[in-house]
Specification:
Radius of gyration: 20 Å
Distance between the termini: 10 Å
Structural class: alpha/beta
CATH class: Alpha Beta
Largest sheet: 8 strands, mixed
Strand content: 15-25%
Low-confidence stretches: none
Helix content: 25-40%
Number of helices: 8
């Protein structure tokens, strides 16, 4: 883990509780993310997912612990880390295209105007925005189109790490599905490293290489790292037919519905606490009618 592209080491966040003591949101979170990997994190509200995201973005400082990216300590915001929020966060006085070019100009100051526009237009097209739509202001765009602009802006800046904070949470199911597909295509083309918060189990299985599971807060832990043993490319209609899909989904549902509460508040101690690696693969047993496949959890 120490040699991973993104290394989170013994991350802890505490706040004053108002009574002279401290309130621990999460503690000793330690995990790594490899370059080009797509990792989702799941957990109930209050476990500290968004706090971890803000620390990775450089928008907050942890009480203790270290975050390293590409061997360098993460501290403060940087163009090397892009963020897509649930609420779009677009500049309302700029068009969709100018919202993208604004960041691209800052990221690539040596580029001339034509190259900036060409680059920005290309990424807007990757998320399905072309023609007159790119010259509209956010108030003239639907929610789904605004989120497309946010995603295009983040990818166009070519950050080393892309952070997605429930980017589809405010969208209807049909729009969400369409933009998920576009996100997969853009990510596949760019090989970005992505860390994403979601509450949607099916979305996490569709998008992620691995899913990190957190116990309930306070004193939350990153307890498991579940590998998604479904080959890419994936799409929503086909993955449900894969033998591993429901085995993985059932494991996630069981953890979030029961084990996240059972494990809540169990301290990982002062040392490095890495999540348990869980690999669920029933494909070898798919053609064998007996016995029922056994799901295996192995220590990482």
């Amino acid at each position: 883990m120490a040699n991973a592209f993104l290394s989170i080491e013994q991350l802890t966040q505490r706040y004053p509780d108002g009574n002279g003591g401290e309130f621990t949101v999460f503690e000793n979170a330690s995990f790594g993310i490899e370059k080009g990997e797509f990792v989702c994190i799941l957990g109930h509200s209050g476990c500290g997912k968004s706090t971890i995201m803000n620390i990775l973005a450089g928008l907050a400082e942890p009480t203790s612990g270290v975050v390293k990216m590409d061997g360098q300590h993460v501290s403060g915001p940087s163009l090397d880390r892009g963020v897509v929020f649930q609420n779009y966060s677009l500049l309302p006085w700029l068009t969709a295209l100018k919202n993208v070019t604004f960041g691209v100009q800052a990221r690539f100051p040596d580029w001339d105007k034509a190259k900036v526009i060409e680059h920005s237009t290309t990424f807007l097209a990757k998320v399905g925005l072309t023609g007159d739509a790119i010259h509209r202001k956010p108030s003239q765009l639907s929610g789904g189109m605004r989120q497309r602009v946010s995603i295009a802006r983040a990818f166009a800046n070519e950050p080393k790490l892309l952070l997605l904070d429930e980017p589809f949470g405010a969208l209807d199911a049909l729009t969400r599905g369409t933009i998920q597909d576009e996100l997969i295509k853009v990510w596949s083309d760019t090989d970005q490293t992505v860390f994403m918060i979601t509450h949607d189990i099916d979305e996490a299985i569709l998008l992620a290489d691995r899913i990190l599971l957190m116990t309930n807060g306070p004193n939350a832990q990153v307890a498991e790292s579940v590998e998604i043993t479904i080959p890419r490319p994936r799409n929503r209609t086909d993955i449900v037919e894969h033998p591993n899909y429901y085995a993985i989904r059932n494991h996630l549902v069981h953890f979030l519905g029961q084990r996240s509460a059972e494990l809540s508040g169990q301290s990982g101690g002062s040392g490095m606490h890495q999540p348990k690696t869980v690999r669920i693969d029933v494909t070898d047993e798919a053609d064998d009618p007996e016995p029922a496949p056994v799901l295996r959890a192995v220590e990482g």
